[in-house]
Amino acid sequence: MPEVRDIQVQEPAARAAAAAQELQDMQGEKMVLNMGPSHPATHGVLRIVLELDGEIITKAAPDVGYLHRGDEKIAENMTYTQFIPYTDRLDYLAPLANNVAYALAVEKLMGIDKQLPPRCQFIRVICCELARISAHLLGMGAFALDIGAITVFLHTFTEREKLYNLFEALTGARFTTSYTRIGGLSRDMPPGWMEQVRKFLDEVVVNFDETETFLTRNKIFTDRTQGVGTVSREEAIDFGLTGPNLRGSGVDFDLRKAHPYLVYDQLEFEVPHGTTGDAYDRYLVRIEEMRQSVKIVRQCLDKMPGGPVNVPDMKVILPPKERVLTKMEELIHHFINVTQGVNAPPGEIYFAAENPKGELGFYINSKGGGTPYRMKIRSPSFVNLSILAHLLPGHMVSDITAILGSFDFVMGECDR
Amino acid sequence: MTASDLATQLKAKFGELFAEPVAFRDEYTLKLADAERIAEVCAVAKMELGFDYLVDITSIDNYGEDPRWTVVYHLYGYGHHQHLRIKTDVSEEKSELPTVTAVWRTADWHEREIYDMMGIRFRGHPDLRRILMWEGYPYFPLRKDFPLAGKESAMPEVAFTKTTPMAGGPFVTIAGGKDTIAREPRVRIPETDALATTNRVERRADIKDAHGEGKGPGPIEPKK
Question: Which of A30, A141, B15, B219 is most buried when burial is the number of CB atoms within 10 A of its CB?
């Protein structure tokens, strides 16, 4: 005969007290959560070991290095030109910008950066700014995707597809462009490319407006990003943040204005900066930066000069093929350039460019010859990530995606 | 306030500790004679000369020279927009110098990376452990005596350490073999061709003879 018992229903007050008593036993137990290297919202292979108290993060330890390929060691064994494809793979969302930054660094070491022909400089600026648009489109699209606004991602990627077509027409590759060479570019612009770029610019501005319609005054987006991941001005400088992350925190600093390289001093553009330093400000800074990039590219297209695209020094640039095959001197220059590399003087330089992710710097220590003795890549994403251990505690787990997305880092660059 | 002025000012504060500023391509480098004073120098540079941003710390392996290590600090000031480079040498026996994390918190990760890649320790660092390589990795990869192809090392906590046999297909070169015969044997036997790699592979003595001293694996015996 089954036993029958009455159900004991406590009155609400006693029931609440009993529930609180149960939770009391669980207070103070923290959980360790591994946001593993393979995660859709970590923008690459980033691992964060989180210690959680319920939903609040108490400790965060980012674990980087999953994409470490030893680029700096490789650079010691390659000529300067051979290393250019490796620079594509640093910030792989804006390979042209890395190519330009690296070429400028080596040219600074060689002392030929002032001798670059104007056409080369204007084309490089166009490359950098198109890369900036491409990187920010992806950054903000992925940011919105992680927050939950999935449509935005597809919108920004439609424009990125057009950019990839432009890059393919210009460099031969959609993605790993390896476009610049020491002393110039691998090839000049194809005919009709400038008109394609103009057409693209007209279309992409419409896309920026659409993206802003989706996000900027969207209550859900602002609730999730305002006040989240706030980095004060002093913290931003102390932690070495650069790029839109630094500007979002209120520091009005841009390498293109403070230390103009290429022809940025001849171009008119503004540098947006934020006030609060939260995720929303960083988003707004990036959107406005894209608009300024469009302005810059339009000016470059209007001002594009004619002329050669390479430094006229045959020891640095490969001579034209028809002369290599017929004349002895050019043959020797070609041979030495390809086998031994450009002859850099002994010395050390540091050159930094304003990349979409921040300040990408190359420190090249050369003992002469065609290979560097030591090349250090000052990667903006590596430094930007270092603030995570300080920034994440106190936020909730769902804020992590907002913070990671707003910092917009790339693991390829972080780990090198 | 130009970079040259700032360099001279910093040298003036420390006198003989610094060599004369070296200029190259409009950049100024100060060589610090005593690496132990680096934290003090950096604090002065930040507080009194306005270098509030540490751009980068780098290490150089002067293999064959003594002192073996050179640590290079790149400083920048958002107020005066000037760069400065401070270099200091550390000998191999010592391999240690004070940390500058108290001056700029960004030095934290830079110094961890230098420790990871070169093996230079930073005294007073809050958490000096490897950052790019995994904990327990036995080597310092950026040293000049570490080969480019890498060295075998045990991978912690992984399910398997053998590389995939025939990875890449039957006609692909096996990476890192001793010589051409090891790298491109006449016949690839899946069980043994992983031996030709130098990384992360157990070498069993009995199979070792198959890819021995320059001999290829030999023709496959037809199954009987």
Answer: A141
